[in-house]
Design brief:
six-stranded antiparallel beta barrel, transmembrane, transmembrane helix, membrane, Efflux RND transporter periplasmic adaptor subunit, about 30% strand, five-stranded antiparallel sheet, OB fold (Dihydrolipoamide Acetyltransferase, E2P), YknX-like_C
């Protein structure tokens, strides 16, 4: 074998190493995206694990009186059957307000005075007109009496033939004219007296009095204000004070029209005032206003207190429970009964019954002892106190002691 042939054979036996870098480049081209994808997945999993879960909560609550007898509930506001804006009957400038807000007043008590100078001038003039009309009437009466006597004498003379028939007719005509003047004077005196009465009434209207016993709830005007009873513009429509009878309070509750068939006059109720949440006040349905609010599809039901509670005021928020039958006095107080939570808030696991309490945005598992079930709720003979927030329908896989959570807005 020649040297050239030997070189050719050796060349054929050599390994071609130029293909190896190409394969490595191809492997790296797939490994780098895969590694990046894996890193992203790991980061996402870590973020999901660290994400703060959102929970829906409800408050542990004390039971309300009469819950078992409640037919339906409605919200409303306290109002008074006698509530008026006191305004003058005439226009004028306010010179004195004699009452203040919160002050009790009696019927007929002076509450304000208007400037009465014009009214007094009108009354003085009316008094003068009455005096003048009285004087004219006196003169007319004297003339009528004299005419009557003259007529009688003339008639006697006419019967004797001492005066002619024409003279008698003239005297009788003059007598009738005098009588008409007397009647006119009487009418003028009556008109003058009526004008005097009107002037006196106008003067009396400058003094504003309380139309009923009540309490001044608002002061609407101060001295110097010019008031007009029928004013249609401006911030003051003629009112001086608002007067409310606090002994005639009632609740105006709004009830949807489809529920009206469940309400009747005289039906027993329980009234809960937002300002006095610890108490329930018995009442009854007074009437249902015969009108429907189109925009809300509701009717107003007037509910009266059996005894108006001390501290109740107009415009207080109220809730009304319409009962199937009256409650005995001993059942008006629900204190001492075990608190309640939604049944879905209680978890049952190997450790026993418990609820997840939310405090300062962190979870705490608290054991409970469950009593009876009432509708969608259960009573707790042992557990958190009323007002505590607990998780509704908790997910055991996502919750643990000490974990931070977010409370769902409007939850519970």
């Amino acid at each position: 074998m020649s040297d050239a042939q030997s070189q050719t054979a050796l060349s054929a036996l050599r390994i071609d190493r130029s293909a190896a870098p190409l394969k490595r480049q191809r492997r790296l081209r797939w490994l780098i995206p895969a590694a990046l994808l894996l890193a992203v997945l790991v980061a996402v999993a870590a973020a999901v694990a660290r994400r703060t879960p959102t929970v829906r909560v409800a408050e542990v609550r004390e039971p309300l009186p009469g819950e078992q007898q409640t037919e339906l509930s409605a919200s409303g506001y306290v109002d008074s059957r006698r509530r008026s804006v006191i305004a003058p009957l005439i226009a004028g400038q306010l010179v004195e307000v004699t009452v203040e807000e919160g002050e009790p007043v009696r019927q007929g008590q002076v509450m304000a005075r208007l400037d009465d100078r014009d009214a007094r001038v009108v009354l003085d003039r009316a008094e003068a007109e009455v005096r003048a009309a009285g004087a004219r009437l006196g003169a007319a009466q004297a003339q009528a009496l004299n005419a009557e006597r003259t007529t009688e004498r003339t008639r006697n003379l006419a019967r004797q033939g001492a005066v002619s028939r024409a003279q008698l007719l003239d005297v009788e005509t003059a007598g009738r004219a005098t009588l008409e003047s007397l009647n006119l004077a009487k009418a003028q005196l009556a008109i003058a007296r009526r004008a005097r009465e009107a002037a006196r009434l106008q003067l009396a209207h400058t003094v504003v009095r309380a139309p009923f016993d009540g309490t001044v709830s608002k002061k609407l005007a101060n001295e110097g204000a010019v008031l007009a009873p029928a004013a249609l513009t401006g911030t003051n429509l003629g009112g001086i004070v608002e007067l409310v009878d606090l002994h005639a309070l009632e609740v105006e509750a709004e009830v949807s029209e489809e529920q009206l068939s469940r309400i009747h006059t005289g039906q027993p109720t329980l009234i809960f005032l937002d300002a006095l949440p610890e108490r329930a006040f018995p009442g009854q349905v007074a009437t249902v206003r015969p009108a429907i609010d189109r925009s809300k599809a509701t009717a107003t039901v007037l509910v009266r207190f059996q005894s108006v509670p001390q501290g109740a005021l107009p415009d207080m928020g109220a809730k009304v429970s319409f009962l199937r039958q009256p409650l005995p006095p001993g059942e008006l107080d629900a204190h001492g009964q075990p608190p309640r939570v939604p049944a879905s808030a209680v978890v049952h696991d190997g450790k026993g019954d418990a609820v997840w309490v939310v405090k300062d945005a962190r979870l705490t598992r608290q054991p409970v002892r469950v009593g009876g079930r009432v509708g969608d709720e259960v009573s707790l003979t042992q557990g958190p106190r009323a007002g505590t927030q607990v998780v509704v329908a908790p997910d055991p896989k996502r919750l643990r002691d000490g974990r931070r959570v977010k409370v769902e807005t409007g939850g519970g």
